[in-house]
Amino acid sequence: MIHASLFGKTSDGRDVHAFKIKDGANEATILSYGGIIQSLKIADKEGKLVDVVLGYDDMASYEKNGGYLGALIGRCGNRIDKGHLVVDGTEYKLYCNDRGNHLHGGREGFDKKVWNYVFEGGDGNILNLSTVSPDGEENYPGNLRLQVRYTFVNGELRIEYGAMSSKKTPINLTNHAYFNLDGEGSGNVLDTFLTIAADRITPTDDALIPRGEFRDVEGTPFDFRKPHRIGERIGSDDEDIARQNGYDVNYVLNKAAGVYGKVAEAESERSGICMEVYTDMPALQLYTGNGLSQKGKSAFYNRNYGFCMETQYIPNSVNVPAYAALGDCMFEKNKIYHSVTAYKFSVK
To answer: How many Å apart are CA 230 and CA 7, to the nearest integer?
Structure first.
């Protein structure tokens, strides 16, 4: 069974609940605020529970601080150039909240909503969060109904997204958890080994907007097709590394959109914890916490204290046909959006 408790209240007085899902010794805590993964405790090679996601212990910190720590992201994750969206000839100007561009749903994305909840499954161990994004919210078209299910079984935290709109609209949902497999307050993640099954990235301009180009990772610091430590090449003078101030880059995965499979793996020598990433999405954003600078649960989070692996459609694909051809985030009226991402933990 899921254990529910009151986590706190928003600044405008709404109750926020915490839902604890047990999986043997492991334990995940999800908030009704923003669908946030607030805690994810995994047994390490010595059997000690390690909280592997960054976050906060109180609601005020979640409302005050940026960075989207652990949050559910939408209506459209990542960046859209200058908030420019055209749907069947009608232009929509989305709210611009990052360097003159639209990022992670705008001023008040899904990360700031208090979601409704029910428990499902024979043992009541599936958390189902739901909400509605009304027509015109952040200037998006369509009344969008959403459901997101969380399960935690056999070391696998699985997130299943579902949505449907009353008008044609883009939908690109993801989760923005920051992982540190040595523990959320243990220091930086530069020694973590990382593997990503992708031959290409989508390079960006100075505002981190991809504009239609592809770049092969062969011979670059972006090549994680075999395991490399995150910090091994993060200080490279490569122009894209310098532009991103570390890694903040979209990988085009070596599989088709809609095909579910393993796409990445991270491993810590210190804790022995290994995390595999599975998804049916066509792309993945690697972000190495280049902008972190805030007090977290057990420590002050500095630069590179966590890394994100956000499964997604290619950013700015609403404006780039070559990207949309690899996975189109534009959904017709009443067409069901469905995607699944899972983070599977084990010890080596």
So the answer is: 34
Torsion over CA: 32, 37, 43, 49 (sign): negative
DSSP secondary structure of 50-88: EE-B---SSHHHHHH--S-TT-EE-SB-SEEGGGEEEET
Tokens of 163: 């949505």
Give pLDDT, residue 123: 83
Give one DSSP letter per residue of 303-334, joined into a string. TTS-BEEEEESPTTTTS-HHHHTT---EE-TT
State mean pLDDT over 328-336.
98
Which residues fall within 8 angstroms of residue 17, CB to CB, at 6 or more apart? 4, 5, 6, 7, 31, 32, 117
- The answer to whether the CB of 22 falls within 8 A of the CB of 97 is no
Active-site choice (138, 176, 265, 276):
176
pLDDT confidence band for 106 (50 / 70 / 90): very high
| Closest alpha carbon to 109 in 150, 79, 151 | 79
Amino acid at 309: M
Residue 180, number of CB atoms within 10 A of its CB: 28
Q: Which residues contact 80 (CB under 8 A, 6 or more apart)?
A: 94, 101, 102, 103, 315, 316, 318, 319
Q: Is 240 helix (H, G, I), strand (E, B) or coil?
A: helix
Interatomic CA distance for residues 317 and 322, integer angstroms: 8
Closest CA to 173 of 152, 147, 195: 147
Q: How confident is the model at residue 124 (pLDDT cuts 50, 70, 90)?
A: confident
267 is annotated as an active-site residue:
no
Per residue in 229-275, pLDDT tens?
A: 999 999 999 999 999 999 999 999 999 999 999 999 999 999 999 99
Would residue 176 show up in a list of annotated catalytic residues for this protein?
yes
This prediction's pTM: 0.97
